[in-house]
Amino acid sequence: MDFDADLPQHLERHLAAFLTEAGASVRAAQPAFGSGVDTLTGFVLGGGKRLRPTFAWWAWRGAGGDPHGPDAEGVLRAVASLELVQACALIHDDLIDSSDSRRGRPTVHVSYAREHRANGWLGAPETFGLAASVLIGDLALAWADDMFNSAPLPAATLDAARPAWRAMRTEVLAGQYLDVRTQATGDTSPEAALRVSRLKTAAYTVQRPLHLGAALAGADEQRIATLREFGDDLGVAFQLRDDLLGVFGDPSVTGKPAGDDLREGKRTLLVALGLQLAEDTEQHKLIADAIGADLADDEVDRVRRTLTEVGAVDAVEQRITALTGTALAALERASLAEPAATRLAELAELATQRTF
Amino acid sequence: MDFDADLPQHLERHLAAFLTEAGASVRAAQPAFGSGVDTLTGFVLGGGKRLRPTFAWWAWRGAGGDPHGPDAEGVLRAVASLELVQACALIHDDLIDSSDSRRGRPTVHVSYAREHRANGWLGAPETFGLAASVLIGDLALAWADDMFNSAPLPAATLDAARPAWRAMRTEVLAGQYLDVRTQATGDTSPEAALRVSRLKTAAYTVQRPLHLGAALAGADEQRIATLREFGDDLGVAFQLRDDLLGVFGDPSVTGKPAGDDLREGKRTLLVALGLQLAEDTEQHKLIADAIGADLADDEVDRVRRTLTEVGAVDAVEQRITALTGTALAALERASLAEPAATRLAELAELATQRTF
């Protein structure tokens, strides 16, 4: 088994095994919860780039983890559990944002509301959708811990990774909380946008998975700190690329409607810089009015042109380039073993230059 | 320090210590999340009967746990973490049920919606309340695991308790899921009501805490099975008392409006038996129409009289007596060390005979 070459497949094998194992005892005792378990299983196995466990795996490999050693399967299970944390984050986020679709399918709250409506059940379909999606998200979070804590690894190995595991789960919630508050208070500053990106993407998606993987390999404080520098800069760059794609991305490639981030009113650095650079002109008003508005396609085009004209797009592209540069320099300093160093550098390029 | 005599105080000491410790690092890194941490801390330390850790503690003591031994503080921390699971369950339940108040204070989603309204923030106050309460409940669930897993106990001791910990968290979610589905499908059978009680109260509130405590003391399978029998019967009896108080309780003692369970449309065994015993009479219609209706006080009185007349109240009281009897017989068979045996018997009486 070549874990390095077929990583996503092995991560999915562990996820499927855990979901089957955890699901079986619930189904036996509580058949009525079977549909809930099915929903979560379908969600987790139904897609996703497996980005967080991939970062964790390569940090483990780079810090000396042996893919042919006795810990390899245990590490796969421990890092795959990050996908269950992510399932909770996405299911609850979709509810909070009232999103209708995810990965081309109805979101969890929407599909439960539809089931309710189709059956003509009592009460409001939306309330049922809310209830079920809150509970399925909670189940994902509880099971993430169960999966992580039952990884077949020496107690000391899991203990070494616990600070990263703890920080990661608190930070993603802090990031979402901050995001919700920033949108509510209407803070349009570039600083607020960067704070949210640092927590939601840099810390949760890149930095802590790298920290977790390195800690599972017994890496020392110094190397972990250097890897976290790499992760912080890369994570912000990754989010900035996401922000650009959210406005300029080709719908046929991203799978999302054009200008989706604008309609959703996301407070991205791109928009924050656009407002700052436009100062008190007509362009400022055009951008400000577009946030959270139900824009027609030609209006999206106009906002795109404006963001480009005021220099916000260039500014974000320059930041991505600078952050990718400092990230790669930190990666170099972490002097990871090959092939991990090369693979992480490739991941960094991919994450910051992608068009999807 | 007399842990047995001052148990609630010691449980609260551990909760306060954990919340301060976990909160400090978040506050330092992310001041903006401080208000979220404050909300959770206030909620957890603001009240509650500490029932679940109390059952767990006495099971630990009864199975040989030494309150003067080296594990006592670690066990207090491990069992106190049940209160964080409960915080998640209550915060999310209040959101799902649209409850306005809890322990005489506004519920979490309501207090966030008020903060939003008072500040005139952007968007709908209710959406903000939903978002914040989902995230604060998630934080409680993540922190429950962090608290449990960082209890200073030998790895083998915590490992022995993990099956109970895992089952408990899945079962409370299964119970809430089943509850929501039962209300939606309008299943008014006594069987459905009992199934929900078994999961939401018997398993989660009594049986698994007992299992957890006994496992922490290294109890064998046989003793754990006997204690779980005690917990299952006691837990159902406890829920049936709760059902009676939800309809007949004195508001000045229960702190809830008279007939609150009727207005909320709860599918309790009391109501299910009322419907079954009334068959197809006027009384059946009166009970059926009362479920989930906005009843005036004299209408609540009429439903109370009807439930009594058809024999549902007597039937529930008889079940409580029978279940308490079989529970106490199982407790006897578990031959726990004193004073745990006496204290658990007292708790059983208190839980099934209470008026609050």
UniProtKB/TrEMBL annotation, chains A, B:
<dbReference type="GO" id="GO:0008299">
    <property type="term" value="P:isoprenoid biosynthetic process"/>
</dbReference>
<keyword id="KW-0808">Transferase</keyword>
<keyword id="KW-0460">Magnesium</keyword>
<dbReference type="InterPro" id="IPR033749">
    <property type="entry name" value="Polyprenyl_synt_CS"/>
</dbReference>
<dbReference type="InterPro" id="IPR008949">
    <property type="entry name" value="Isoprenoid_synthase_dom_sf"/>
</dbReference>
<keyword id="KW-0479">Metal-binding</keyword>
<dbReference type="GO" id="GO:0004659">
    <property type="term" value="F:prenyltransferase activity"/>
</dbReference>
<dbReference type="GO" id="GO:0046872">
    <property type="term" value="F:metal ion binding"/>
</dbReference>
<comment type="similarity">
    <text>Belongs to the FPP/GGPP synthase family.</text>
</comment>
<dbReference type="InterPro" id="IPR000092">
    <property type="entry name" value="Polyprenyl_synt"/>
</dbReference>
<dbReference type="Pfam" id="PF00348">
    <property type="entry name" value="polyprenyl_synt"/>
</dbReference>
<protein>
    <submittedName>
        <fullName>Geranylgeranyl pyrophosphate synthase</fullName>
    </submittedName>
</protein>
